Each structure stands twice: as structure tokens, then as C-alpha cells.
Amino acid sequence: MHSALNRVQNVFGYFTTVASVVAAVIALSSFTQPQAPSASLKLRNIQVAKGRPHYYSSKREEYAHVRFDLDTDLSSIFNWNTKQVFAYIVATYPSNDPTEPPTQAIIWDAILPSLLEPWHENQYIHPGPPPTPRNGKRSSRSSNSGPTYSRTKRPGILKLSNQKPKYQITDHTGLIANRGNATLELEWSVQPWVGMLTWKPRRDLGVWKKLKGGVSKTFSFPEVIGKKPADMNTVKGGERNRGKPA
Amino acid sequence: MAEEALDYVRDLVEGQIDFEGQRLSELIYTVLLSLVGVVAFVTGYITQNVYNTLYVGLAGTALTFVVVVPAWPIFNKHPQRWIAAPHKYSSSSGFNVEVDGKKVT
């Protein structure tokens, strides 16, 4: 402590200690924030058609196209230490071999940013209300796009009706038609500002209540339809990342 | 003239303080930084904004650096007085130092 350099080293050393302790307290504080998310997830329509994994492939696989309704309130997940929530919908169905675990595939996902997170082009843009044309005039873009739900005071509220999937799914065998006992389930992971990545709790963890609802009724994949209908395309929303790895 | 200015700058950079000042500065930075940590967390938590924790923490740390690092006059209020050399040592013959059993003069 006798010289200025020595004092710089000491103060900086203690600063790192204080910073890591504060960071640890912040990380632990998220477990004291109550959360009680709820969701209603319904299967709307499901179609299975033959397709190719990519244009030049000679392999023909069966692809399932799942439309769904999702009405969820994940706003309680957004506490002061939440940076963003990655919400996704998983289709789960038993494998052909009963000794093997069930197969899971993601049909839709969204990056839900917290209010403090800087804008990024991959963040989810919630579809606004349908445009209401006045006097036959095209309404301006700002009123057309409607409120983006992820940028309101309470992020994490999603109301999707007859939503097209982001990804068509297939089985590793290439056959997905006529598979039974399938469900859709809403999942998420939470990226905090400080601390560890957490996933949807399977059961109540203190003040963290598990998701109420969020699982669809069991359904079966239908027969393969002959020709691929026009409305079987996937939709990526307004965000930049169109289902490709970032 | 340049010599004096150089000396002044060197003293400023070295920032020597006395023993009492060292004890005081150590106390100040420990208390201040601990306090900054608590205040930063509470500020962020109350405003529900983790950025405020960051900014308050960094600002408080910067303040601590300003308070503790330079050799402020308060850290030099108790200069160490050296005992004056006894008169007999002032002559060169007065030393009584032995090295390997031999007297060194």
C-alpha cells in the first residue's frame, strides 16, 4: 500500500472479488422471483406429405406440417435478471422400438427478448392484429404491423391462432405418417443477464411454479396425402433468422 | 528546473504514503468497495434494471480509485521520524561491524 501502483493493484483485486460476489447474488436472486407461467396449446391441423430433404436429394421422406394455437403468458418468467427466453414447441411421439426413448422434434421456436435487451434481427416479432383498411387506402406500415408483443411492458405474452410451423418434421426413418400417441408441448430456456441457463421446471421449485397447461391432447399423424398442397409451407415471421442456423 | 519538475512528476506517480496512511487507505477501500457492491445490487434490484447495478458498481469503483490511489495529504499526516544517528557514529572509526569474525572499518 506504500505506492500508488501498489494501491491500484489492491483496489482492483478487491474490486474483482466484490464484482463476482455481486454477480453471484444476482444469479441467485432470480430463484427468489416468483413465476407462474400458463399456456394453452392446441393442435389445429396436421398434414403429412412426401418431400425431399433438399432440392438435389433423391431421398423421399414424409414430412409432417403441424398447425397449432398457442395462448401463453410467460411474462412472469421475465424477472430483472432475464435477458431473453427461447420458447419452442416440441412434438413428441413414441419410437417404433418401445425400448427406445420417444422421438422429439421442434416445430416452432421464438427468441423473446426482455425489455432491456438491445434489438436484434433474430428476435421474435409477434404477428399484429389484421390490418384494417380505411377508405380503401393502404394504411401506413407502422399502424399495419401493430404492437409487437415482445416489446410491450410485459414481454412473453403470445397469442397465436392457426399458426404455421417454422419447421416441417420427419422421423429419422423418413416415415412419420400414421404414428400415434403424439403430443405437442411448449418448452423454453431462460438466458439470464448473470448466472446459469435454466430450462422449464418439470415440477414446482420453491416460488417457481411449473407451467400450467402447455401440452396438447394426444393426436396421431395422418396418412400421407397425395400431392403437396399449396398451404403446407412453413412460416418464419418477421425475424431475420429464417430457420437456418444463425 | 526540468530536474525539479521531473522529481515532482515522479513523486506524483509513485505516490508514497506513510504507515498510518497505508492503514487508513486499506480501510477506506475495503469499506468503500463493499458498500459499493451492496448499493449497486440494491439499486439494480429496486429499479429492476440490471444495467443500473453495472453502472453503479463501476462508478463506485472509479470513485474508490480516485479516493485511494493518489497520495492525498491525509495519507501523509504521520511521517515516520528516523532516529537521529548518535554522534559517535558520525566519525568513520566508530563503526563496530563484524563480517566473518573480522572487524570491518
UniProtKB/TrEMBL annotation, chain A:
GO terms of biological process kind: protein targeting to ER; signal peptide processing
Keyword Endoplasmic reticulum appears in the UniProt entry: yes
Low complexity bias: start-end ranges: 141-150
Superkingdom of origin: Eukaryota
Chief location bin: endoplasmic reticulum
UniProt keywords, alphabetically: Endoplasmic reticulum, Membrane, Signal-anchor, Transmembrane, Transmembrane helix
Classification via InterPro entries: SPC3
Membrane topology category: Single-pass type II membrane protein
A cellular component annotation (GO) from this entry: signal peptidase complex
Signal peptide coordinates: none
Subcellular localization, as worded in the UniProt entry: Endoplasmic reticulum membrane
Membrane-crossing residue ranges in chain numbering: 12-31
Residue numbers spanned by region Disordered: 122-157
PANTHER family attached to this UniProt entry: MICROSOMAL SIGNAL PEPTIDASE 23 KD SUBUNIT SPC22/23 (PTHR12804), SIGNAL PEPTIDASE COMPLEX SUBUNIT 3 (PTHR12804:SF0)
Protein task: Essential component of the signal peptidase complex (SPC) which catalyzes the cleavage of N-terminal signal sequences from nascent proteins as they are translocated into the lumen of the endoplasmic reticulum. Essential for the SPC catalytic activity, possibly by stabilizing and positioning the active center of the complex close to the lumenal surface. Essential for viability.
Family: Belongs to the SPCS3 family.
Name of the molecule in the record: Signal peptidase subunit 3
Source organism of the structure: Tothia fuscella
UniProtKB/TrEMBL annotation, chain B:
Topological type in the membrane: Multi-pass membrane protein
Membrane-spanning residues: 27-47, 53-75
GO biological process: protein targeting to ER; signal peptide processing
GO CC terms, sorted: signal peptidase complex
Location within or outside the cell: Endoplasmic reticulum membrane
Keywords: Endoplasmic reticulum, Membrane, Transmembrane, Transmembrane helix
Function: Component of the signal peptidase complex (SPC) which catalyzes the cleavage of N-terminal signal sequences from nascent proteins as they are translocated into the lumen of the endoplasmic reticulum. Dispensable for SPC enzymatic activity.
Sequence similarity: Belongs to the SPCS1 family.
Protein name (database record): Signal peptidase complex subunit 1
Species for this entry: Tothia fuscella
